[in-house]
Amino acid sequence: MDEKINKAAQWIKEAKYVVAFTGAGISVPSGIPDFRSPGGLWSHFDPWQVCSDWALQHNPKGVWEFLLEAVFMFNKAEPNPAHLSLAELERRGVLKCIITQNIDGLHQRAGSKNVIEFHGGCTKFYCNDCGKNYSLENLKKLTRENIPWMCTDCGSIVRPDIVFFGEQIPPSALFSSQEHCSKADLMLIIGTSGEVAPANTLPTIVKQNSGKIIEINLGETAYESVSDIRFNRGAEEVLPLIVSKIGGKN
Ligand SMILES: [Zn+2]
């Protein structure tokens, strides 16, 4: 373990362009179960019924029952040492950006500035019809009794700025992620097993450019064949150890 920590820290120090690619696993120690795990949101909500383009049209109350529970869970959670370590690496000029599949906002709350939310985030809201913007403050007035949240201008459903099932990844998130990956000579893959497309194609871009991959994931993943160093442990344990071995750039 110590040897691998030292090697990972050395590689990160030597790299010119480090990006992190994160998924549900990084937020589990913060109290947000992976949506797809037992106890996760998909264990008691059907994604298509509450988080799809169909649901926005046909089941607005169900959409908001799900969103209230999700946003409540996100707000209650705190960034853990893995989120804080990545924020620290950015502050030291080591990490260029985080590409996250998470919608919980914990990277930003940990202090990370350059975060690409591949599937959007649950902090901004807009009307699904007329596009009027709403803030998280507006949402705090919502209760189970007054959902769904409807637009005050046109009466259509208000939605979070996240990618629902059946919708495309916003081109800006896709292109900027691909651009960062094409520049990267080292990627940290953290808490994502590589099951969700097209996000799971990003490590391939790094690999095609001869970049190195350090993977910190519990259990089996789709990335084992591309990972150069692999930690089968929690990132909240491994990342602080790596960071303690790395100084600032210049
Ligand atoms: Zn509207």
UniProtKB/TrEMBL annotation:
Q: Which residues form the active site?
A: H119
Where Zn(2+) is bound, by residue? C127, C130, C151, C154
* Keywords, sorted A to Z: Metal-binding, NAD, Transferase, Zinc
Protein name as annotated: protein acetyllysine N-acetyltransferase
Query: Where's the Deacetylase sirtuin-type domain?
Result: 1-249
Q: List the NCBIfam families hit by this protein, alphabetically.
A: PRK00481.1-3
Q: Give the Gene Ontology MF terms in alphabetical order.
A: histone deacetylase activity, NAD-dependent; metal ion binding; NAD+ binding
So what EC number does this one have?
Answer: 2.3.1.286
Residues passing through the membrane, by range: none
A Pfam family? SIR2
Question: Which Gene3D superfamilies does this entry report, sorted A to Z?
Answer: SIR2/SIRT2 'Small Domain, TPP-binding domain
Q: Which residues form a coiled coil?
A: none
- This protein's species is Desulfonauticus submarinus
Cite the InterPro entries for this sequence.
DHS-like_NAD/FAD-binding_dom, NAD-dep_sirtuin_deacylases, Sirtuin, Sirtuin_cat_small_dom_sf, Ssirtuin_cat_dom
Recorded superkingdom: Bacteria
